[in-house]
Design goal:
transport, ATP-binding, alpha/beta, 2 domains, P-loop_NTPase, globular, nucleotide-binding, ABC_transporter-like_CS, binds adenosine-5'-triphosphate
């Protein structure tokens, strides 16, 4: 299989298995779990408004971690810190054991190539067809020949069930198809870490379930660290290995998915039940 391997291992021990996908280059282990992303005591304010207030959370390697929490509580801001688009006022974000803000700009740019990000609407380029959208990161970041790019892109689009739509433009396909195309593009560089910002937003329940199955299947196939921000309890149940609940810029609950759904913790109970009575308020 053709694969872009030029960025792997540059910021840590060699991390690819024979198939080119992430095995482990994780340097942080705790309680038998390897963590590829560590968020340590991160503070972030915009003006006078504190959004992240001493946030600590680690994301386990080869696992799907879901982040829940009320609107405006800092989930997207957290994702932007993890991928190095926002710099903390205080605290550290360590990726594969390295504090990303201790790296040079060039090293940080290289590190970002180990991430795949799926935004809410797929963030596709409207002027490019689906094939070219998925090929874009390979053309921009690698020197692979067009024939090699074609092999990777067609395989990726087939995995997300879009083989019949490669010539279509984003405005010609449904919201669910856009998300699947965005997912194929997020995976095309074979990232070690994939971030999903509300992948289920705007989808009906059946399409949400299908997308969840796809996330689980793709994770099983490609492995790596997946972080999913969602408001949807069914999504949480279907895709997660671990669940974290954020509130007012702090982690108020973290546990395995089974623990979360049986927890008597008031934050997690209120969020999972959607109850208006409990510690999570509008403020
Ligand atoms: N670049 C920015 N400048 C100023 N304020 C910002 C910026 N980015 C985020 N914020 C503020 O930070 C807070 C948290 O935003 P964030 O998007 O992380 O919330 P969220 O938990 O993802 O919410 P939702 O579930 O509604 O998407 C909000 O009050 C938002 O207005």
């Amino acid at each position: 299989m053709v694969r872009p391997s030029l960025f792997r291992g540059q910021l840590g021990p060699e991390s690819t298995g024979e198939d080119g996908y992430a095995t482990s280059s994780v340097e942080s282990y705790r309680d038998g779990v390897a963590y590829s992303v560590e968020v340590r005591d991160v503070h972030k304010s915009f003006g006078s408004s504190g959004v992240l207030r001493g946030l600590n959370i680690n994301f386990a390697e080869n696992a799907v971690t879901t982040i829940l929490g009320p609107s405006g509580t800092g989930k997207s801001v957290l994702l932007k810190h993890v991928v190095g688009l926002l710099e903390p006022d205080r605290g550290e974000i360590c990726i594969f054991g390295q504090d990303i803000w201790s790296l040079s700009d060039e090293e940080r740019t290289e590190l970002r190539k180990r991430f795949g990000v799926l935004f809410q609407d797929g963030a596709l380029f409207g002027s490019m067809n689906i094939y070219d959208n998925v090929a874009f990161p390979l053309r921009k970041n690698t020197d692979l020949a067009e024939s090699e790019i074609e092999e990777i892109v067609l395989k990726g689009l087939s995995e997300v069930g879009l083989s019949e739509s490669i010539k279509k433009y984003p405005n010609e396909i449904s919201g669910g198809m856009k998300k699947r195309a965005g997912f194929a593009r997020a995976l095309v560089m074979k990232p070690d870490i994939v971030l999903f910002d509300e992948p289920d937003s705007g989808l009906d329940p059946v399409r949400t379930s299908l997308l969840c199955d796809l996330i689980v299947d793709m994770h099983r196939e490609h492995k790596g660290t997946y972080v999913v921000v969602t408001h949807d309890i069914n999504t949480t149940r279907r895709v997660s290995d671990y669940v974290g609940v954020l509130w007012k810029g702090e982690l108020v609950y973290y546990g395995s998915v089974d623990e979360a759904f049986s927890a008597d913790d008031p934050f997690v109970q209120q969020f999972l039940s959607g109850d208006s009575v409990g510690p999570l308020g509008m403020e």
